[in-house]
Structures are given as structure tokens and as C-alpha cells.
Specification:
By secondary structure, the chain is mostly beta strands. The chain has 1 helix and 13 strands; from the N terminus they run βββββββββαββββ. Strands 1, 2, 3, 4, 5, 6, 7, 8 and 9 form a 9-stranded mixed beta sheet that branches. A 4-stranded antiparallel beta sheet has the order 10-11-12-13, covered by helices on one side.
């Protein structure tokens, strides 16, 4: 799934690693590899971009006691409109060793504009049983927004109310 973040900001990316039984896996050394899609260059630990992967960044445990198995990396999103492939490697003892994602750097407000355009132009689905409306991204399968129906007053309803929740 692609995550959007404003360019020239810092985005916290969080992943969870588990063992073979599905229990949270603490004490890992988690390597983070970031590849810029526009030119295929890799971000090395010294915050330089190179043609081949070098020293990778590390993700840190969020809280080994209260959030075991959860690791985070703060990515300084460059001041450029681009996409970045991100790979987390939890090592061979993690059952879900590799986790992948894509981060798309957008201009100020582009994420909001994208959502507005999606509501107007992209597909929407309504679940008959619940009445929930789901606004889909332009790929037709990624939910962006869910509208849950309700009424303004349970005892004496006068109008239907849709409550929005971002997916």
C-alpha cells in the first residue's frame, strides 16, 4: 500500500515483527532500506543517495515493554515529489522478516486534494446491510474514506447523518 506524506517533512513509519507463533518479537536489529523510484538510488546511513545499497538505516524499538515487537523509523522526506520503496528487515528470527511499503512525497495539501478528487471522481461502494459508503482510491480497491450512516437523534430522527473516517 502507498502512504502519502508531505515533502520536506519527517514521517514516522511503524512496523511490527512477530515470531513463528505470531507473538511480538522484541530485541531485533531492524535494517531499513529506502530506494528512490525516480532514479533507483538508495539512501545510505550517512543520508547520501547512491546507486547501490550501502550502510542501511536502523529502526528502533518503540517500547519493548508496552509495545513489544513494534519498531519505528523516522524518514526525513526529501523536498521533492517522488516515491520511495521502503523495506524493513527484521532478521532471520522474525517470521515476517521482510516488510515492504511505498511512500509518496506530495506537495502541501496534495493529500487533501487527492481525497477530494477521489470523493468526486472515483468509485464509491455502499454496503447494503450497514449502509456504510466506502470511497475507493483510483486503483479501485484501496479504501480512502468510510462514511457511516446514522441519525441526528435516536428518539426523534429528523435527518440522516454520515460520519467520515479515513481508512
Amino acid at each position: 500500500m502507498t502512504q502519502r506524506a508531505r515533502k520536506n517533512t519527517t514521517e514516522r513509519i511503524v512496523v511490527t515483527f512477530v515470531d513463528a507463533a505470531g507473538a511480538p518479537k522484541s530485541g531485533l536489529t531492524v535494517a531499513v532500506r529506502i530506494r528512490r523510484k525516480s532514479d533507483g538510488q538508495y539512501l545510505n546511513d550517512g543520508d547520501t543517495w547512491t546507486a547501490t545499497p550501502g550502510a542501511e538505516h536502523s529502526a528502533a524499538a518503540v517500547d519493548a515493554t508496552n509495545a513489544p515487537g513494534v519498531y519505528a523509523f523516522d524518514f526525513a522526506v526529501p523536498d521533492a515529489l517522488d516515491e520511495f520503496d521502503i523495506r524493513f528487515d527484521g532478521g532471520s528470527t522474525a517470521a515476517n522478516r521482510f516488510q515492504f511499503g511505498v511512500l509518496r512525497a506530495v506537495a502541501e495539501g496534495d493529500g487533501d486534494l487527492h481525497l477530494i478528487k477521489a470523493v468526486v471522481a472515483h468509485s464509491q461502494e455502499q454496503t447494503i446491510a450497514t449502509g456504510v459508503v466506502t470511497v475507493m482510491d483510483d486503483d479501485g480497491s484501496t479504501p480512502l474514506l468510510m462514511l457511516t450512516p446514522g441519525v441526528d437523534d435516536e428518539l426523534n430522527p429528523t435527518k440522516n447523518v454520515l460520519t467520515a473516517a479515513l481508512s
